[in-house]
Specification:
The protein is built from two helices and 18 strands. The chain has helices at about 95-100, 155-160; strands at about 5-10, 15-20, 30-35, 50-55, 65-70, 70-75, 80-85, 90, 110-115, 120-125, 130-140, 145, 150, 185-190, 205-210, 220-225, 225-230, 235-240. The two termini are about 35 Å apart.
Length: about 240
């Protein structure tokens, strides 16, 4: 049986919505640890509050996920972590709906969706500016994902690769997150106390205006009238969907 879970964020209710349909290994979700956890069994994984974990399986136990951190693997309690959604994952939408969303968008705007012709597989729809091109995301015998020659262990890595390498062969097209998918605000998950004057202080529950999210290591935002840098794992982006 081919079971999975995908996640999107509902900004109206500040909740994560779960859709079971395929194998969770497909996306390899990144999560933020809400609390510190110390393993008491050999098959459990210890982590600290604020750590970024990669979830590799959600199917075996309703209360535990399997995760990876610093090349270590083990079970983690699901109520200790917070799943970070991927704005580019559109879920189960048709080819036509994908084209309508991307039509007239800048070249490189894209989304990943469930394949209409092959349930359990994925397609990537990319705006070429003058039209929308669709790519089938394939898997090899080792469960690696690929569009052309390069293979990746997750869709995350595939998408990241084509942000700086052309997805097209006949022209140069780099993936770009459509403007409506870019988060403009985020909820603070934890208190952040700066270690440098250029950093931004905030407390759990604050809403932060996101000024620059182009760096994967540090983001720039505005909160309580101040602008500064902070680690992205301390916040939950709020995505606005059409």
């Amino acid at each position: 049986m081919f079971l999975c879970l995908t996640v999107t964020y509902n900004p109206n209710h500040n909740t994560l919505i779960f859709f079971f349909w395929g194998k969770c290994l497909a996306l390899n979700f990144k999560t933020v640890a809400l609390y510190t956890f110390r393993a008491t069994e050999s098959d459990e994984l210890s982590f600290n509050k604020g750590d970024m974990l990669r979830i590799t399986n959600m199917e075996d136990d309703p209360n535990w996920y399997t995760a990876e951190l610093h090349n270590r693997k083990g079970f983690v309690p699901k109520n200790y972590i917070n799943l970070r959604p991927h704005a580019w994952f559109a879920g189960r939408i048709s080819r036509g709906v994908a084209e309508n969303r991307l039509r007239h968008r800048e070249c490189g705007a894209f989304l990943v969706r469930e394949s209409e012709s092959a349930p359990g597989e994925f397609s990537m729809s990319v705006s070429y500016g003058d039209h929308v091109q669709h790519f089938k995301v394939l898997q090899d015998r080792c469960s690696q994902y690929y569009v052309w020659d390069e293979a990746f262990s997750s869709l995350n890595e595939l998408v990241e690769f084509y942000h700086s390498n052309s997805i097209a062969k006949e022209r140069t097209v780099f993936l770009r997150d459509p403007e409506q998918f870019r988060p403009h605000h985020a909820h603070a998950l934890f208190d952040f106390n700066p270690h440098h004057p250029s950093q931004l202080r905030f407390v759990r529950g604050d809403v932060i205006e996101l000024v620059d999210c182009s760096d994967s290591v540090r983001w720039r935002g505005r909160c309580h009238g101040r602008v500064g840098y902070f680690p992205p794992e301390y916040v939950q982006p709020i995505y606005q969907y059409q």
